[in-house]
Each structure stands twice: as structure tokens, then as C-alpha cells.
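Q: I have 400 residues here and want to know how they pack in 3D. Can you give me a structure?
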Amino acid sequence: MAVLCGAGLGRSLRRCGAGGSGRSLWKPVLLLLSPPAFSTSCARCAKDRRLRQKRAISERQLTRYFVDQRKVRVVGGQGGDGGHSFHSEPRKVFGGPDGGNGGDGGHVIFKADQQIKSLSSVFRFYQGFHGERGGSKNCYGANGAHMYVKVPVGTLVKEDGEVVADLTQHGEEFIAAYGGAGGRGNRFFLSNENRAPKLFTPGEPGQERVLHLELKTTAHAGLVGFPNAGKSSLLRAISRAKPAVAAYPFTTLNPHVGIVHYQDYEQVAVADIPGLIKGAHQNRGLGMAFLKHIERCRFLLYVLDLSVPQPWSQLQDLKNELEAYEKGLSERPCVVIGNKVDLAQSRINLPLLREQVAERVIALSALTGDNLEELLLHLRELYDTYVKTEQSQGQSPVKW
């Protein structure tokens, strides 16, 4: 007898002889089997119960999860309706109205959190919790809980093109939408003229707004340069950040932030700003969408490609773009980095660059790692100077 795979109801094939004729007949017989305590499926028919591993996400796909702009619709919670009831008690027929007021609706609040680095976790719609209805015996309804939305530090909140909030400190809050007020119960309308009021008011709706969130990367240093200057490769060499690197321009489409760790546990944040071109302040190329990230950088690292003819002209063009975007932006503390020093043409252009440029020039190779120590030491000097300046002015420096 052969039993096919099945846990409760199976079919069997029974062989029987037909009167000695030598022929054998296979008759299907339906068997009612009780459910077994374990699976009786064969190995070929069994399902694959192994844990499926998550699909690996490439670096190019990871860059799409960085969001620096978000349009959010926020609605405050609606207030609870006022109560409508009259006091009832034995031997007290006319107890009077005792309906309480409704609870207020909850607010929608944006709160800056230094653990959040992108607006990708922010949804497009938020609504506060509603207030409860007023009860009898003069019981007020409970207020609705506030809806807190965590946003990165450095988030600008705009409404109709105007800035309404700038969250630059950890824990700073902004009430995006107020909740509605609770309604009045009939106890509120009691007067000498009206001893048994039946009037009560509903709760007010919450405030509704459409806000635009804009993230400006808050980093200590910003890597500024033209496309294919080696900014992403340099950030890979000095930190654990993994921006995409390729041989074509505009590889970096989103700003990346890498953390440089020192032995005394100080951390310096370096932002890889996407490549700029001439006319970037006029919204050419990637345009002004990424010039805004340079505003929050305390000092700048100009990355130049030493292998191109006249690399000192790149520095002048970059400063002109920054100055055209915001006056005084190019005057921040800076250092000039001559990248790709491992090439033969770069060694020829290096002394010419130092003659043309008044700032300090650090020649290195992000590919081979030559002279990265000088950059890291000077980066720490710029950071210490920034910390002392902020503390002398009574302000707290940005910490990572």
C-alpha cells in the first residue's frame, strides 16, 4: 500500500487479483486518516523553511534614502464635544446641568533630534490626537496627546516660502499645528435666566497647515570642489562613510557626512558636498539645492584636482560661486587640498599652485593614502579653533 503526501485526507492504491486471471487492478480507495502529530510530507514536497536573508542594498541604492526636502501636511487634533447631562439623584429631582467641557486636541510638534540624520523617516501627513468628550457630573474630557515628530538638527520649516522655524539645537521644538479647543458643556451655560440649559458646543477643529521641511547639513567641515576632484574618495579615506565613487562626473547626488575619530574621543564631521560648476548660484548643474549645505559648515576644505591645467583657477571659481550665493561665505577658515598627487602632472602643478594661492596647500592622494596625516592634524587644528571661538562667545559648539 502506498500513501501519498497528505496530513488529513489521503488516497491509497490497493492491489487486488481478479479471479486468477493474472491481471492486477489498482483501485483507488479513499482513506480517512486522523491528523498526525507531525508533518508526514516527503522531503520533495516539503516547503523550504530556511530563514531568508535580506537582500543586500548597494551603495547607489542607499544614497536614494537620504532626503533633504519634504512636504508635510499637519493637522492638529480636534477638541472634544461638550457634555450634555443633568444631575440625577434620589430625592433630588431638579439637580441641574452637570455636563463638563470637552478636552483640547493635541498639537503636532517638530522636535530636533541629533540622532536623526535625514528627513526620510518623516511622513507626509501627521494629525494630533483628538480630545475626549465631556462627561456627566461636571467631568471634563481628557486632552489629546501631542504628536511629536523627530527631525534632524538643522531643519528649516517654511510656509509659503517664508521661514517660520529654524531648528538648530538638539531638543528644540516648534508647534507645527495647534489642536482645537474643547467644546463647552451645558453646565457652562447655567444662569439665573436659564436654570436648565440644554445648549452645548462641539469641539473646534485643529489647525491645518502645509509645511516644507528643508535640511541643511550641519557639519564641521565641508568638502567643496568641482566634479571628479576626488571629494568622495577623500571622505572614504578619512572616515567610514561610503559614498559612491566612479570615473564620471556628478557621481555624488546627495551630501554625505563622514565622522573623523581622534584618540581623545573627539569627533569631527566632514560633509561631502556634491560637485559645483560655474554658475551654480544661478541654479546651473546641481544648482542651489546643495549650496545651502555649505552654509552650516564652520570651515571649508577646497579639494582641487592637481592633474588638470592651472588648478589654481578652480579655487578662484569656487570662491566666486560661494560669494555670489552668500556674501562672506568664502571668507570662512579654510585649507586647500591638492588631490591626485600620485600622478606625474600633479607633481609639476603642485609648486605652481603654492605660488598662486595664499592659503595653506596640503598635497595628498586619496587613492593611495599619501600625506593623509597632515590633513587630519590640520583638520583637528581647525576644529579646536572653532570650539574655542564658540566658547568665548558664550555659545555651545556642535558636537557629534
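Q: Anything worth noting?
A: The chain has six helices and 17 strands. The first helix runs from residue 59 to 62.
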